[in-house]
Amino acid sequence: EKDMEKKIAIPEALKSKILKHHQEQLLEYVSEYTPAELAEYIEQLETINFDQVDQLYHDLCVDKKSAITAETKRVIEPADPDATFSRSSLGAEVKKVKQLGLEAIAEGKIAVLVLAGGQGSRLGYEHAKGMYNIEMPSNKSIFEILCKRFLRAQHYASEETHKKGAALKCHFYFMTSPINDVETREFFAANKNFGIDSDKLHFFKQGTLPSLDFKGKILLEKKTKISLTPNGNGGVFSYLLEADSKLFAEMQTNGVEYLQIIGVDNVLNKLLDPLQAGLAISTKSGCTIKTVPKRGFAERVGVFGKIDGRYDLLEYSELSEELAKKTNAKGELYFNHGSILNMLVNLKDLIEVFATNRHDLTKLFHIAIKKISYISKGVEVKPKENNGYKFELFVTGFLPFMTKKITFYQVVREEEFAPVKNEKGNPQDSPDVARQMMSTLHKSWLVAAGATVTGEGLCEIDGLITYEGENLTSFKGKELKTPCYLKLQLLSNPYHF
């Protein structure tokens, strides 16, 4: 014990940095720590970029540069019709556009990034949300559903570009959070990475930012613990703010030209969608965003629109009822680009946005004023009023600064958007709804292929068999009783491909 105590101390350079930034309260209880606690505390301190914390506090809290008050007059408009595409609007062009995407996928130019930092707390599940089983016949986790689709998209691209059997070249990135990073990696390892080559699979942890009190002092959550929160679903971009970030440089070395950024919880997510990729390439867009029409004006979903001439995500709370209800000549909602958290970004254009705006963080960060528990004079205080600031990056936060073209690709909700957010039994966005949507979609593919599907049970086709209904001709004239789960092993015998 004694030897250990001698060896561990807060490095002088770190101590002087803390004092230089007037955060001396961080050293208040250090003398009471055990060596193990001190070692862990030093690790927490080392994650803090004190210059950035100072800049965020001064820009956002003191100068309130980005504050939007009731007096701020903002011109809010819908997306331009000529920036909006759908499968039907592309008409005869679909085949050509899709082929461009299939070629890019076969060449490994598109990577997928899953924002997997969330826990399943709202589902009553205290693990990484991606590990959740929505209880389809296969009992697959959300992670497995996404991985199978990622693999099938590439096989599909190889088949359609006559490179059948070629090695799969696309890279797959997962942004985890400090809470679930270890658990997520272990889950993938235990499941042999769901068949994805380990050199194509990358995990990285979302950063954290300290909570501050109203005077800009970093708060302690416990005597031995700094109040740190994950830096938002746009946390991946914090790597673009570090001049020496390896993450994005590695993506470029890996041949990635486009990055598809998606949320973890949508089980109908089309990873590596060839049509979205082809659209991005043919329109030379900096960002190609998937949206769905809203269910009705009151649906609590963010919509994309223009604020003062620049594209951004408008939270449902930011749109007045009058604007939300407004319709066009066709009777469609004026603001009808509901976000499903799926965008394909041109990597070079994205890197440029952050390189250009690195010195003006106010543009990129959001500030939240919250009640934050803290330690004062050694005792935990649970405030009844707001007492501090938290900062986060939103994944759509770069849009207003994207100088390249932004396009919207409107898709069919029943085919592409079944988010698992709410607990079982909830009539919206719950595992029950997602299961039914997935089953209905898979049944429709089989029926289109000429099969008869009977019974009221669930129907599931393994993601490795088909990407969007192709490859099912062997079921023509067959009768399938539900519940059913069609997987590759089953197929090798009765119907072989």
In angstroms, what is the radius of gyration?
25 Å
Beta content comes to: 15-25%
In one word, what is the shape?
globular
Order of strands across the biggest sheet? 2-22-14-17-13-3-6-7
Which secondary-structure class do the elements indicate?
alpha/beta
Helix content: 25-40%
Number of strands: 26
Helix count equals 16
Unreliable stretches covering 5 or more consecutive residues = 490-497
What report would you give on this structure?
- With 497 residues, the protein is α/β, with parallel strands linked by helices.
- Helix content is 30%, strand content 22%.
- It has an eight-stranded mixed sheet with strand order 2-22-14-17-13-3-6-7.
- Strand 6, helix 8 (181-190) and strand 7 (201-205) form a beta-alpha-beta unit.
Present the secondary structure layout:
Layout: H1 2-7, H2 12-20, H3 35-46, H4 50-62, E1 76-78, E2 84-86, H5 87-90, H6 94-106, E3 110-115, E4 119-120, E5 125-128, H7 142-160, E6 172-176, H8 181-190, E7 201-205, E8 208-210, E9 212-213, E10 220-222, E11 225-226, E12 228-230, H9 238-241, H10 246-253, E13 258-263, H11 274-283, E14 287-292, E15 303-307, E16 310-314, H12 321-325, E17 338-346, H13 347-357, E18 365-370, E19 374-376, E20 379-381, E21 388-393, E22 406-410, H14 413-416, H15 431-448, E23 452-454, E24 459-461, E25 479-481, E26 484-486, H16 488-492
Parallel strand pairs: 2-22, 3-6, 3-13, 6-7, 14-22, 23-25, 24-26
Antiparallel strand pairs: 1-15, 4-5, 8-12, 9-21, 10-11, 13-17, 14-17, 15-16, 18-21, 19-20
Helix pairs in contact: 6-7, 6-11
